[in-house]
Structure formats: structure tokens, C-alpha cells
Design a protein that fits this description.
Distance between the termini: 69 Å
Number of helices: 25
Low-confidence stretches: 64-69
Structural class: alpha/beta
Length: 436
């Protein structure tokens, strides 16, 4: 095969993670795409082989690596759910492998991806999400599109190449949360702690009610909440797509904002599993940045999911019952990436009359995986169907999950299936139980 003119170069951290793999194959049953396709190159082990071959220039990124798909396609088909890390006895940091590989192949991937993927990358990820002004305008247009009847009118007019994006356009869950100046929410009763709250982009723009419920729960639990001004996207979606340059710039912007927060805080809390997992890696991402390395490491160490923070503080009683038979579905980037397997259910277990029913595959990916529903809609749908079957067998009347992409995946998937099952964030349940 012809050698690539632009070498596929990996960082030392990525190479170190690759060397940890002993090729035992214990990760294969945990991988959603391997379960669906049964092909070695669509497993964690197979992708590690491909990444190593790409760096050693044995496979050119522009040439076929198999009978049907090229090497880059196999990497793109990975959801990045990191279930393989939980299964791995050698502790391979597969997240570092796949993100490092996508960064190395970023320009090649941009040239070869679909029109919908290029639109996502060049417009939404590079232009809209990093800008609070453009994001606000985009959310306004999205709300108008959903409520004005334009969605139905333009269904037949939208080019086929853009229909995957249009079909996934979400409806707003409450008014946007945007805060352009620092806001402080005082604890009710005795103050037991003080946190800095990350508002982000997607949650901030289309799920503002969840942010308001999160703050309500924190203050009723005796926690003072500081919401720093003009926060921006954390960069998680960008790093998943391989755009390290934008991811670094966004981390730096947020760190500048956090550096201006007045006073100490116990933790940097969030209610979005994907954001939390990424922000815990800011220290790693900026390790070579002389200006930000130390502060990034400090913030990463303080970053945690809001449920973990509250459980560690010791939960005060929730005064109200919440009547539901609920299936909790663990977001991959909370369960596998952050290794947080208990806190959400421990919090929900403190709410009177709230009954958790077993969801057999609750630790498996729902197929959302950040922008995966847009870039790989067919595989995303296939993976969700397994989740849907398990949910129907559980007889649950409510799904609870703590990540915006997962919430949207369930809401849209259940609507397509014609099932009247609600989908809520743990903080929405806790806020209702905390009402005075």
C-alpha cells in the first residue's frame, strides 16, 4: 500500500495506552459495534490494531483496510462509550486511544466524511457551540423552527444529505439558562458547602429547566451555588471528533472564567456526564500549557457529577414523594469514563415512593454518544433498539438518565416507537421531591 504523505502521528500518551493492550479480547462482548457487527475491526482490540498500523504507516488512511470499510470508517464507527475500559483487566485507557487516533486523522476524516458530518463539524462545532452569541441565536431559530410549523413544511424540501441533522433537531426543555454575569444562589438553612456550577452549551441552551432544578436541589440541600459568567462549551464534542485545537481553546476560555470566581469552592459540579468526563481530563489536555497546566489540573480534580457531590455531603431528607416505577439508564461517560456507578441511584433511592426497576443492559450505550446520532444514524438506531426492547420488558413508566444526549436519544426514540414513557434527569426527580 502506498505510504501516506501526511504521517499519522500519535502522542506519547496515546502510544502508551496502546502498549497497555495485551490483545486478550475480554473487551469484545462489551463493545456495542462488535455486538452488532461481529467484525474484529469494529471491536476495541481491532481498532487498536488499526491505529498501530496507521502510525507505523502500514495502512494509508486513504486506502482500504478491509473488504468493505476503510480504516477511518472503523474508527468513526466507535461510539467512544468506553465500556471496554470497564471490562479491561489491563486498565487500557481506550478513550485516549480513540481520541488520539481521531485527532491524528482529523484532516483526513474531514475530507472523507458525509455532507451532514461536515455541516456538523464546520458549522455547529466550530462556529456555533464556541460562541455564546451564535449559540443563543441558533437556539432561538431552533425553537421557532419547532413551534412555527416550519418543521412539517420543510420535511420534504430538506436535501437528503441534511435530513439526519434535521430529524434530530431537539425541542427545548424550558427557557435557556444563559448567565452573562456571575450569579450566586444562597443555600437554604445552614450552609454545608459551596460549589461552582458548569452550565455548558447544550444543557444551557435547550435544557434550561434541568439546570434550574439542579440549583434548586443544591440550595435546598444547604449548598451555595456559584454560576460563573460567560461560560462556554467544554469541548467534549470537539475532542470526540478529533478537533484538539478547538477543544484546547474552549478549555482555556472556561479556565479564564473560573479563575475570576470570587472565593473558594468545594467542587466544580455538573449535571452532564459527557461534559464531566471531559473536564476531568482538562489537566491532561493542557499538561504542556505553561499558563494553564496547574490550574487545569486543579479544576479537573475538583470536577464531579452533582449526584456524587450530594451523596458525599450526606443527603438531607427529601420532603415529598415521587410516585414512579423508573428504569435508570447509566450514561456511559458517567459509568465507564468517570467510574461513577452508584451515586445517581443512591440519591434516587432516598426519594419516598420512587421505585427503581431493573433495566438489564443499563450499563450499555443507548447509541447517543455525543454527535454519533448525527454522524452514524443507522448504527445509533440499531443500538437503541436493544435498549428499547429491554425497557419494554422492564414495564417502567419512566426513564431516568443524566446526560443530554441520552435524554434526547430516549425522548426521540420512544416517540418514534409510539411509547408513552417519560424521560427525566435525576435532578428533575430530586427537585420535585424537594419542593416545599
Amino acid at each position: 500500500m502506498a505510504a501516506s504523505e501526511q504521517p499519522f502521528q500519535l502522542s506519547e500518551a496515546t502510544n502508551r495506552a496502546i502498549r497497555q493492550c495485551v490483545h486478550c479480547g475480554l473487551c469484545l462482548p462489551s463493545c456495542p459495534t462488535y455486538r452488532e457487527l461481529g467484525t474484529e475491526m469494529d471491536s476495541p482490540r481491532g481498532r487498536i490494531y488499526l491505529v498501530r498500523a496507521l502510525e507505523e504507516n502500514r495502512i494509508d488512511p486513504d486506502e482500504d483496510a478491509g473488504p468493505d470499510l476503510n480504516a477511518i470508517n472503523h474508527l468513526d464507527l466507535c461510539l467512544g462509550c468506553r465500556a471496554c475500559e470497564t471490562a479491561c483487566p489491563s486498565g487500557v485507557d481506550y478513550g485516549e486511544v480513540i481520541e488520539g487516533a481521531r485527532a491524528a486523522a482529523y484532516e483526513t476524516r474531514l475530507k472523507r466524511c458525509s455532507f451532514a458530518s461536515r455541516t456538523l463539524e464546520k458549522f455547529l462545532l466550530r462556529k456555533v457551540l464556541p460562541s455564546r452569541r451564535l449559540l443563543g441565536a441558533f437556539i432561538g431559530l431552533l425553537n421557532f423552527y419547532n413551534k412555527s410549523g416550519l418543521r412539517e413544511l420543510f420535511d420534504d424540501l430538506i436535501p437528503n444529505s441534511l435530513k439526519p441533522l434535521a430529524a434530530k433537531a431537539p425541542e427545548l426543555m424550558g427557557k435557556p439558562f444563559h448567565k452573562n454575569s456571575e450569579a450566586i444562589y444562597e443555600a437554604k438553612g445552614e450552609r454545608r458547602g459551596r460549589v461552582c456550577f458548569f452550565s455548558g452549551c447544550v444543557m444551557d441552551g435547550i435544557m434550561g429547566d434541568i439546570h434550574r432544578d439542579t440549583i434548586k436541589v443544591l440550595v435546598t440541600q444547604g449548598i451555595e451555588v456559584v454560576v460563573p459568567k460567560t461560560q462556554v462549551c467544554c469541548g467534549a464534542l470537539h475532542i470526540h471528533e478529533g478537533d484538539r485545537v478547538t477543544a484546547i481553546a474552549l478549555a482555556q476560555k472556561n479556565l479564564r472564567v473560573l479563575d475570576q470566581v470570587d472565593g473558594e469552592f468545594d467542587a466544580f459540579v455538573n449535571n452532564s456526564a459527557g461534559c464531566g468526563a471531559h473536564m476531568q481530563k482538562w489537566g491532561h489536555l493542557l499538561a504542556d500549557d505553561e499558563q494553564f497546566a496547574e490550574f487545569a489540573a486543579e479544576i479537573s480534580a475538583k470536577t464531579m457529577d452533582v449526584t456524587r457531590y450530594l451523596v458525599d455531603k450526606g443527603l438531607l431528607p427529601f420532603p415529598n414523594p415521587y410516585f414512579a416505577a423508573a428504569a435508570y439508564d447509566a450514561p456511559c461517560h458517567l459509568y465507564h469514563a468517570q467510574k461513577e456507578t452508584k451515586a445517581p441511584m443512591q440519591l434516587l433511592g432516598k426519594i419516598k415512593k420512587f421505585r427503581l426497576v431493573e433495566l438489564p443492559n443499563s450499563d450499555q450505550c443507548c447509541g447517543a454518544a455525543g454527535s454519533y446520532t448525527l454522524t452514524q444514524p443507522e448504527m445509533s438506531e440499531r443500538i437503541f433498539m436493544g435498549k428499547l426492547e429491554a425497557l419494554q420488558e422492564s414495564k417502567a413508566d419512566l426513564v431516568v438518565t443524566g446526560n443530554p444526549g441520552c435524554i434526547l436519544q430516549f425522548r426521540q426514540g420512544l416517540a418514534r416507537a409510539g411509547l408513552d414513557i417519560e424521560v427525566k434527569h435525576p435532578m428533575q426527580i430530586a427537585a420535585a421531591a424537594a419542593e416545599v
